[in-house]
Amino acid sequence: MVKKMDNFLPLIVVFPLIMSIIFSYIYKSKIVRILTFLMALILVVLPFFGTYGTYFFGDHAIALGSTSLTSGIAYVLNPAKNVMVFTLMLIGSLILISATGEKKLNGIFTSLMLMGLASVSAIIMAEDIFNLYVFYEIATITQAGLVIASGTENAYKAAFRYLLIGTMAGSLLLLGIALLLSATGTLNIEDMRNFLANNSATPAIYGGLLMLIIGLGYGGGLPPFHTIKADMYSRARPFVASMLQTYSKFVLIALMIVILKLFGGLPYFNITRGVLIALSIGGMVFGTVMALLQNDYKKLLAYHTISQGGYVAAGLAIGTPLGIVAGIFHGINHAIYKSALFLGAHIVSKAKSSNMAKLGGLLPFMPFVAFMILCAKLATIGIPPLNGFQSKLLLIDAAMKANIPELAIIMILVSIGTFVYMMKAFYLIFLKPCSEEQIEEYKNIKISKYSVFSLAILTVLCILLGIYPDIVVDRIYPFAKDIGINWALNK
Amino acid sequence: MDLQLASFIAAGVLVVVGLYGFFFVDNIIKKVIALSIIENGVNLTLVSMGYREGGYAPIYLPTLKFQLFSTNMAYPLPQALVLTNIVIGASMLAIMLALSVVFYKKYKTLKTSIILKED
Q1: Residues of the domain holding B38
Q2: Where does the sequence pass through the membrane (chain B) (predicted)?
């Protein structure tokens, strides 16, 4: 039963949306800079405005036959979703702070960032599937806009490709929603879940599930859409890419949660689970192999994002409470350390190139930054006591408990691959001896203190969540227990 | 033929035609139009779902008897969804067409095989 509660939960979505519209009319760089900094501070406290429970817009229900179904926009906030929204807002805030240190900062950029934050927060909290679709499309447009804001020709091409595929994937997702609506008579996820649990499956429901998976693949960057996402990340400016990958990761988690909530406990979901695990393995392996082949640091990080997306999807696809906790926790961790890596790449790109063959010897010029990038790299590889270790350990444990040791082995092998290319990148950028000319160039590098501040906060978070993973895990577990089912592969 | 069934068939044809255009036509504007056709096919599917033979449009007028209206009106929810989707589709279309103009100015052609070629 969905009921209205008197809280400020909608502010999490509505406030950034309103500010986004206001920012699009501000052109003076100085004013934009001050207001962006203020917005960054407000964003961090915004998730604390909502109290836990369901917020139902309009508070009206329609009666259909003997079943009372709810209709309208509904948001749900629980500790797990609050952690996700807080992480999203914190990263958004740090990226905005970093952006204030840029020479050219216009209102459109901040506007797009805020619109993205509002839409992804809405996707995380949405309890009705159409509202989720609307914000999914807004997030697509926003991400394309942020890439276009990079201003290069290749960025335009990447954004156009993303929009072309996005329009088709969005249409198919809407078709899936239409099929589910026709089969269940409701758009409310909780009501839909009850209907599906008590009625046998029809072709419309199978069709709806298939379309949801297509939407998930596109939104989360799973195969076969992974190359488009990787292209987007590598064409955007690095600090923008850190925001794009955060959006994608949370969209992936949110859509996976919807799929698990609706279908996870049903007998016919087993084949779908296999397909989702296969897609995750595809993402993990492809991302790692492609990252191993790259000479460009931005492209390396882009493919690494695809590989880590595979981990998140694999944990959630297992569908046990432990798997779901591991998937969500890894998604949060990945959003944090990957944002740190992209911010690091943004600072490194001040050396005029992201081609690792043309870099080298940067360590003496930015030792503190190098240390923080190394921390993020070790976190992504899964070295204790950093956050990546904790979530990867949980993922491997979940795979073993579900009796899929092959998946655990692939995860470990992919981690070894990650170690190789991350260490290669660190050596080529910071440790490789460089020429006298390069040293002269490096002396002129101006490192933005705003970027260093953001990077430092993210590094502290990597260490903090590595030492105290319970801060997040304890909040996710009750939610995971509600939507997960305990099962093990019978061989 | 049943009007609802005919609408579903028409929607299916629109989606197939759109998919053909999207995958096999080497023209940036035609690709965008194909996407628009797919979107309209999906919209038609949604509207057809709420169709009721001989039913009322879901707008309550004081001249109608409430009992008669509530049992005979078309399902309004899909129509609300389509309205929202048309707005989203229009904004997507606007951005893609704007980018197409930028590409045309640069390459003097509309061929996607040339415009979207990797450097």
Answers
A1: 3-115
A2: 6-25, 32-51, 80-104
